Amino acid sequence: MAAAGGSAQAPRQYKLAPQRELRVEVLPDGPLRVRLVAGTAEIFGTELPPEGWVPVPPRSKVAIFTWHGATVELDGVSESEYTSDETPMVIYVNTHAILDARRSRARAAAAQGGVLEASQGPRVIVVGPTDSGKSTLCKMLLSWAAKQGWKPTYVDLDIGQGSITIPGCISATPIEKPIDIVDGIPLEMPLTYFYGHPNPSINPDVYKVLMKELAQTLDKQFSGNSESRAAGMIINTMGWVEGLGYELLLNAIETFEANVVLVLGQEKLWKMLKDAVQSKPNIDVVKLHKSEGVVLRNPKYRQKNRSFRIKEYFYGIANDLAPHSNVVNFSDVSVYKIGSGHQAPRSALPIGAEPVADPTRLVAVNISTDMVHTVLAVPYAKEPDEIISSNVAGFIHVTDVDIQRYTNNQENLTFACLCIRCTYLASMFHFRKKLTYIAPCPGDLPSKLLIASSLTWYEA
Is 134 labeled as ligand-binding? Predict the structure, then answer.
């Protein structure tokens, strides 16, 4: 059965045979909910509760899968919905079982006081081209592990979409229970480093530096928590797998010391990675089939999805949050961007050396109307030189920059002497210099330092 998008639909039931799934695409503004009538079923590793209605978030592409058979009911409007028996779920759950066994061995090694390497659980990095189902597989592996009582760490390196927080970030958070179907990844304790762009090619050196900062912070946490160390990581990556994208994948594998590489949907990439790490016997590179239910998304859709992700940060998935508007003087905050630093002059370099721009240099940014509609990050840093190594407390959205001048209504006067004119104008004009922004919560910002970005969102 397939539904025509946008048309009114009556509630309908699907009876699913064992190891079958119902694939549903939800409209951007069409409410849809699902109810388990009989049997058992799950969405990306999280079980549906019996009888109760569960809302499915707008723009979602979900697969309702059953291991033993189920009857489910849909109510609302969808873009499409159909059943399928072509699913890689058995392969995926077998992969989970292998990872689970590794976690148990790591826990046992830690209990016996074994070497640190033996007590390290699986560090799994999921790679593959765009629209191969990486984020979905990560959710399933995390939810299944949490269901078994583990608390694995989810690391998201996909700055283009952002499944933990807004795009433009690399983040990590512990997963203590199966991922909520509606709320998604929990945001109570995320570690977030702000790159500020949806594409790593803008400044790949900063992307590498931030990955290293996140990896080192996680290693410190694991060194004092053997249970988290045994539970390991599930690492999501971007879909850029050629050229510089491939180099960054190799860098991520090395930086996070991944010992399992799951390759989705591309045999060429699997072979390249297998050859690249063959000198490292402790890394397994495994090829997995991607789900046929994966939906291809064009660049325009991805851009709109980034805007929705930013909006959800401030207003909530169900539009149930109310951000707070605040106004600050220009003098109360300092805005910096990372990278694009000026080259050192040749006179300051050794003889024969060429000037090279510092990709991680902090550059002070003058507040201007160009910042309207952009997103700024608020780091925990107290000094500018701490910005790169600091994770962020949150984000603000600039709604207005007021540099309007007041005059004494004498702007038409002319002066014979330019220096006299400049002196007089300086006393005659006054500037408001106010920046207006929205934030998720009221109160002062945790830092007066802000990080600029190329991320924009135009509030309707």
Answer: yes
Assess contact for 392 and 377: CB atoms under 8 A: yes
Q: Is the pLDDT of residue 61 over 50?
A: yes
| Predicted structure pTM score | 0.89
63, with CB counted inside 10 A (0-12, 13-18, 19+), is buried
70-76 sheet: strands from edge to edge:
12-16, 70-76, 32-39, 53-56
- CATH number for the domain harbouring residue 188: 3.40.50.300
Is residue 41 within 8 Å of 65, Cβ to Cβ? yes
Any domain includes 437: yes
* 95 and 207 both lie in a single domain: yes
C-alpha distances in Å from residue 166, one per residue of 68, 103, 158, 266, 397? 37, 30, 10, 28, 12
433 annotated as a binding-site residue: no
- For residue 358, count CB atoms less than 10 angstroms from its CB and return exposed for 0-12, middle for 13-18, buried for 19 or more: middle
Give the pair of three-digit tokens for residue 328.
């600050």
42 is in an annotated binding site: no
> Which residue segment(s) compose the domain that 193 sits in?
89-288
Q: Is 313 inside a domain boundary?
A: no
Tell me: is residue 400 an annotated ligand-binding position: no
Does one domain contain both 228 and 157? yes
Indicate the SS3 state at residue 455.
Answer: coil
For 328-357, the pLDDT digits (tens) are: 999 999 999 987 644 445 555 566 655 556
Total of domains in the chain: 3
E strand intervals along 268-374: 284-288, 324-329, 334-338, 362-365
Q: Per-residue pLDDT tens for 161-220?
A: 888 999 999 999 999 999 998 888 887 778 999 999 999 999 999 999 999 999 999 999
Q: What distance in Å separates the CA atoms of residue 130 and residue 128, rounded to the nearest whole number?
A: 7
Residue 4 falls inside a structural domain: no
Which of 86, 116, 148 is the last residue in one of the domains?
A: 86
Question: What's the CATH code of the domain at 356?
Answer: 2.40.30.330
Spatial contact of 276 and 250, defined as CB atoms under 8 Å apart: yes
| Percent composition of the chain: helix, strand, coil (DSSP 3-state, to 5) | 30, 30, 45
What is the number of alpha carbons within 13 Å of residue 251 lying toward its C-beta? 19
Tally Cβ neighbours within 10 Å of residue 145.
Answer: 25
**Was 300 annotated as part of a binding site?**
no
Q: Is 121 annotated as a binding residue?
A: no
Number of Cα atoms under 13 Å in the Cβ half of residue 239: 17
**What is the C-alpha separation between 30 and 28, in angstroms, rounded?**
6
CATH number at residue 43: 2.60.120.1030
